[in-house]
Amino acid sequence: xxxxxxxxRDIDRTVYDIKDKVNPSYQVREGLTAExxxxxxxxxxxxxxxxxxxxxxxxxxxxxxxxxxxPSLDGLHMDDIVTYIRPNTPMRGNWAQVPDDIKNTFERxxxxxxxxxxxxxxxxxxxxxxxxxxxxxxxxxxxxxYTDMESAIRDPKxxxxxKGHFMKxxxxxxxxxxxxxxxxxxxxxxxxxxPHVKVxxxxxxxxxxxxxxxxxxxxxLIILGEGADLHFIEGCSAPKYNVANLHAGCVELYVAxxxxxxxxxxxxxxxxxxxxxxxRALVExxxxxxxxSGSFGSHVSYLYxxxxxxxENSRMEFTGITFAGKGxxxxxGAKVVHxxxxxxxxxxxxxxxxxxxxxxxxxxxxxxxxxxxxKSSVSCESLxxxxxxxxxxxPAMDIRNDDVDxxxxxxxxxxxxxxxxxLMSRGISEEDARAMIVTGFAEPIxxxxxxxxxxxxNNLIKLEMEGAxx
Amino acid sequence: xxxxxQHANVxxxxxxxxxxxNDTEFRAEAARAVPYGDKAVSLPAxxxxxxxxxxxxxxxxxxxxxADFVEKxxxxxxxxxxxxxxxxxxxxxxxxxxDGARSAVVDENAVVAGEGSEVTVVMSYxxxxxxxxxxxxxxRLYAAKGAVIHLIQVQLLGDRCAHFDNVGAFAEENGKxxxxxxxxxxxxxxxxxxxxxxxxxxxxxxxxxxxGDRKRSIDFNYVAEHTGxxxxxxxxxxxxxxxxxxxxxxxxxxxxxxxxxxVGHESEYNLLFSPRVRNRTAPxxxxxxxxxxxxxxxxxxxxxxxxxxxLMSRGLSELEAxxxxxxxxFRPVTDRIPDEKLRAAILEYxxxxxxxxxxxx
Lengths: 470, 361
Description:
The structure holds two protein chains of two kinds.
Chain A lengths: L23 E4 L6 H10 L4 H16 L21 E3 L12 H9 L2 H8 L2 E6 L2 E7 L1 H5 L3 E4 H6 L4 H7 L10 H9 L4 E5 L9 E6 L6 E2 L2 E6 L4 E9 L7 E3 L2 E6 L4 E9 L4 E4 L1 E6 L4 E8 L4 E4 L2 E4 L5 E10 L4 E10 L5 E10 L4 E10 L6 E11 L5 E10 L4 E10 L3 H9 L4 H17 L4 H10 L10
Parallel strand pairs in A: 3-7, 6-9, 7-10, 8-11, 9-12, 10-13, 11-14, 12-15, 13-16, 14-17, 15-18, 16-19, 17-20, 18-20, 19-21, 20-22, 21-23, 22-24, 23-25
Antiparallel strand pairs in A: 1-2, 3-4, 5-6
Chain B lengths: L1 E7 L15 E6 L17 E3 L14 H10 L5 E4 L9 E7 L5 E10 L4 E10 L6 E10 L4 E9 L5 E10 L4 E8 L4 E10 L5 E10 L4 E10 L5 E10 L4 E10 L6 E11 L5 E10 L4 E10 L3 H9 L4 H17 L5 H15 L7
Parallel strand pairs in B: 4-6, 5-7, 6-8, 7-9, 8-10, 9-11, 10-12, 11-13, 12-14, 13-15, 14-16, 15-17, 16-18, 17-19
Antiparallel strand pairs in B: 1-2, 3-4
């Protein structure tokens, strides 16, 4: 029987690729020096502790080596990256006051519409600063704080809270790009949910990088009080340029006793982006963190959200999908440290590689000596759509006591001829069978996303079947 | 002599250094490798000693440092040729006993199996329980068209011994490499096996058992490199960790572009018996060919409570039940060893080690 190929279309990026004229009110020159870091700190009117923190981080950055594993970062030259670009507007609480060019960009991305329909609050960052932040009145009345990081740092009530948590979970010594983040971070969101407050509809922050050759270094800090509940959504995109752009954000999540946090990300950076993002959650007794992660964009990604299960009976769930097409090398996965007894983790990922794209699933599960009664389950599946692409699976487990139950499964392959045959024998056309299988492959992830995002994902993966199955 | 490798058993795809799994160090103090002696190897019909060079440049599981060390310091080993079509009735036995006079064994071996032949080579390494010995081995295997090589390596060294086995294999069309490794003794034991499945429909079958007790540290690196079409690899590892022992397992299935319709399966089953053990695992699948089927599964934990309960409800004590379960785990692999005495020696060795082990009780 002749074996043919399935055609799977590239992601339609038209809406993301629309570029605005670069019209900043202020920007630093390219490169990374103590002067530039000092200049950013001054422009942002940092408190003294933050200025010192930035300079210390820069020193650490200069000392740390580049990662010796993972995709090549040869195309990234820090000397060419502009680390701070302030858009030509202060932060607004009303879309009508946001300048038209910026507002139109977010309109095209559907953010104000989503806010009206289904979100409890929205933050929108354009290049280095947040241009819009708003939270629904009823949510505000519950005591929920959702604001930009800069306002939070200067807030008399929440400033000390920020200082007590900022880069404590992800210290600048962790790796080179988080040290870089510590030096030049700007923008991002601060969320505080008081004890026992349940936010019934999600909050969303959207990060848009418009300027070519620029970096975006937003910091997201979320603190959940005891028994609190929140769903936070993060979206990111940028138009494509011929020069390298850099995203080195940092996300720190503190989940207190019995609290529940769901953190969903749809990452759709352009294919000139180096996405070197660091995310980490600290989960106390009986708390839960759920990560839902879709990685579709960027030229190179290093992304492995980490969960530290610090309290007894805490748990983490990670559900992720990665789609790498032409020119993309996406190294994604998750890390978990079981640091307390009776903690649970479940990692489930899917990846699709096509047209020369490279997907790497990378993970680590660590169970510390005192963490007895832990359970961990890892499952990763990879689909290869042609032989120009590549898909690697690099999981690691380190188990340091015997009272554990750890399972791991990995599968890699193509669309099975038997499955197609089975569906066809049930009267389904070959075309439809193919579509069903590929959609079915992504389905477990899609159903974890909020409806609007699931629709976006289905639009993103425009799977169009042609010819026979391959 | 000092034995030191900085980077042995290198993981074919690097990951976070922090995990300490990218490679491993090996250090040992060993007596000078004096000639092991001329104990004649009894060869079955169809197998001859040969001085011909090995037919291919091949990589080994532990890497070049370990291979170079053996080439430079060898004191024994054989280079075997199996005539085309020959299927010797009995295996080639290469038993090594480490003792006071010969406490260091450094053996370099080669097995080249001619077209359509089938041969079994059994290597065993044993020592007195209290001997501070050293064994370092390098074995290269070449299976020509349709040839089958069964390599069985059994390590039952005492607690003060350091040991490594470095294996490289190559298979032509329809060739089969079948390796059984039993890593049961020693203080520090390293094993690396890399097989290149080059010919169409060539196969690898790799079964390993390990046993960790006291402060033993065991480190594996198994790599199946699929370059030929319709090649198949099966890698299955199972073992038990007790006391303060530790084990690292790296298992890689590498589908190189062009290895169409290749299949690779890998599984690992670890039983843990003490809160002080450490078990590290990195099961990799590297893939640059779409038309393949790769699968990996690993399971790590305590003995299943239901199984234990069932055996105890049949009148066994907890200790007896646990011993039976460990033995049952090893049995499918040991049963394939074609030597009654060696089989019995393995089971006896494990039984003795299990007696009086408090971490089992």
